[in-house]
Automatic annotation (TrEMBL):
Organism: Lentzea waywayandensis
Protein name: Alcohol dehydrogenase
GO molecular function, one term: metal ion binding
Domain Alcohol dehydrogenase-like N-terminal as annotated: residue spans: 25-142
Limits of the Alcohol dehydrogenase-like C-terminal domain: 183-281
Keywords linked to the UniProt accession: Metal-binding, Zinc
Length: 335
């Protein structure tokens, strides 16, 4: 079978490896049918991360179940499933507490698509072995094609979970989003679905502002265009330190700021104003499986439509050439 490898800045290749197979009785083997890049993948391909090449890419996909082990219940060959980015057992203390991203049964940071916590492969592969399949794979609802759920493995569900935290803390509170990545757009969609009274989106990109407006947000090109200086809830999805700083400074006293950004270099944050204003700041890798049922229901029910966020439609066969061009948020299928 083929796996997609990152081998250097804007260089990718297909490599032949032995077919994925069931190793343990709780395993499943799946075939990705609709995939996309995580916002982090673009940085990896552009050579802006500390991860060494070569590495197998991909941790967002819907897949078809090909084979299941003898101890896998609730799944059969042919099922379409979301494959979460994290590797987790589903039964340890952290998994049971709703934090599968910190599973105690695997090395820390274990995941698909990056060489962290073991060699688990990537989801831009022809076949993928998924351990603890019954605890991880979540079947798609009827009536919605796999493309709509391609990002549910990470970015889509990440946006839901972090917006939910804010709306749980302050129900109905307005949200200010500093965008620049797909997560910021998904955050706009979920904020309206979760009854935020107002969503304001800041992004220099005209294309992304139009998508945010389609999700019911007020969109402006820069923070200078805002008609409100402070918000109880702010969200950094800019992928840039300036966006993080702007989000923190725009958080009102007692408010909450969440960042979906991954900053590998040192970043200066305004800790003085944060302290004086009692700002709560959160960040971190998302827990996917606990939130997937709600995300799938919102998409299947028509309350959230992820499809407008996709920037391109690519095919698996041409991924080495097309991903090297750094498309923003491509939908990848077999045709």
């Amino acid at each position: 079978m083929r796996v997609l490898e990152y081998i250097g800045t804007r260089e990718l290749r297909w490599r032949e490896v032995p077919d994925a197979r069931v190793v343990d009785p709780g395993d499943a083997v799946v075939r990705p049918v609709a995939a996309t890049t995580c916002d982090l993948d673009r940085a990896v391909i552009a050579g802006r991360t500390p991860f060494p090449a070569p590495l197998q890419l991909g941790h967002e996909c819907v897949a078809e179940v090909v084979e299941v082990g003898d101890e896998v219940s609730g799944l059969v060959a042919g099922d379409l499933v979301v494959v979460p980015w994290h590797i987790s057992c589903g039964t340890c203390a952290t998994c049971s507490a709703g934090a599968p991203s910190r599973c105690l049964s695997v090395p820390r940071y274990a995941m698909f698509g990056l060489p962290l916590g073991g060699a688990w492969g990537g989801l831009f592969s022809e076949l993928v072995r998924v351990p603890w399949a019954a605890a991880n794979l979540v079947k798609l609802p009827d009536g919605v094609g796999p493309a709509a759920f391609a990002s549910a493995s990470d970015n889509l569900t990440d946006a839901y979970g972090s917006v939910l935290k804010g709306q749980t803390h302050a129900p109905g509170a307005p949200l200010l989003v500093f965008g620049g990545t797909s997560i910021g757009l998904y955050a706009c969609a979920f904020a309206r679905a979760l009854n935020a009274s107002r969503v304001v989106y800041v992004d220099a990109s005209e294309r992304r502002r139009a998508i945010a407006e389609g999700y019911g947000a007020q969109a402006v090109a820069s923070a200078a265009d805002l008609d409100q200086r402070e918000f109880p809830l702010t969200y950094d999805a800019s992928g840039h330190p300036d966006g993080l700083t702007a989000a923190l400074k725009a958080t009102e006293p007692g408010g909450h700021c969440h960042s979906a950004g991954i900053y590998f270099a040192g970043v200066t944050v305004p800790t003085g104003p944060m302290y004086m204003n009692a700002v709560t700041f959160t960040t971190g890798r998302p827990d996917i499986t606990p939130h997937l049922p709600a995300v799938l229901a919102l998409v299947a029910g028509g309350e959230v439509d992820p499809l407008p966020v996709f920037s391109d439609h690519l095919t698996f066969d041409l991924l080495p050439e097309t991903l090297a061009l750094l498309p923003e948020k491509p939908l990848v299928t077999h045709g």
